[in-house]
Design a protein that fits this description.
By secondary structure, the protein is of the alpha/beta class. It contains eight helices and ten strands. It has helices spanning 2-12, 22-27, 30-40, 46-51, 70-77, 91-100, 138-149, 195-205, and strands at 60-64, 83-88, 107-111, 123-128, 152-163, 172-173, 178-183, 186-191, 209-216, 222-229. The strands form two sheets. Strands 3-2-1-4-5-10-9 form a seven-stranded mixed beta sheet. Helix 5 (70-77) links the parallel strand 1 (60-64) and strand 2 (83-88). Helix 7 (138-149) packs across helix 8 (195-205). It is globular. The protein starts with a helix and ends with a strand.
Length: 230
Amino acid sequence: MANTQTHQLQLNQPKQINDANLSFYEKIDINRFIEFAKIIGLSNGADIKAINSEFCDAKVIAEIGAGYGRAIEAIINENFQGKIYAVERVAHLVSYMKHQFASNEHVEIIHDDAKKLKLPEKIDCFLWLWSGIMELSLDEQENALKELKNQLNPGGKVIIETPYEKVKYIGEKSPDNFVKFETDWGKLEAYLSTLEELQGICEKAGFKSIRTKLYNTESDLTRIFYIYTI
């Protein structure tokens, strides 16, 4: 019965939801971003501290949806010595990061979309944090992960981070796992994939394995990493 319900949900899902959210981020003030990070408990890099051991020895990493550079700064503070690509599709956030990291020769800001990303070199680890993948439909998630896989070095990883089962503070989750967040400057739509769905994407995208890791933010929220390996 569960498999039938999942299949039906996939049939009913929109093929695209990601592009509809772009205007939300084009209008959001960076101070709002910082405020949300504090509410969730991510402003001091709790996610990076929890997952740092997975990529600390990598030579080249990339963060998808780097926003205002919150995670990039945390990675630098963890003394990561390799090359960092910060990928962001929103122009004013790209400009902000270029200013913030102008003096760091190890950080390169890329103005691009994860759905069509082509980096100038192979990557050891992609980081897709702060629920970024939730803003893609299942079809978009699968296609994006296929593209990222093709840009990994042998033994490479894609690390995805989302809420664990419950969505709190920002947005409300419906019984069918869709999330809506409405503000004065726009609305955000997202989808919280199940472990079963992400395991299915793992196989379809050609990864060898997927494993999970739970952690708590500074606001005592339990969140989860999905670690895809080729």
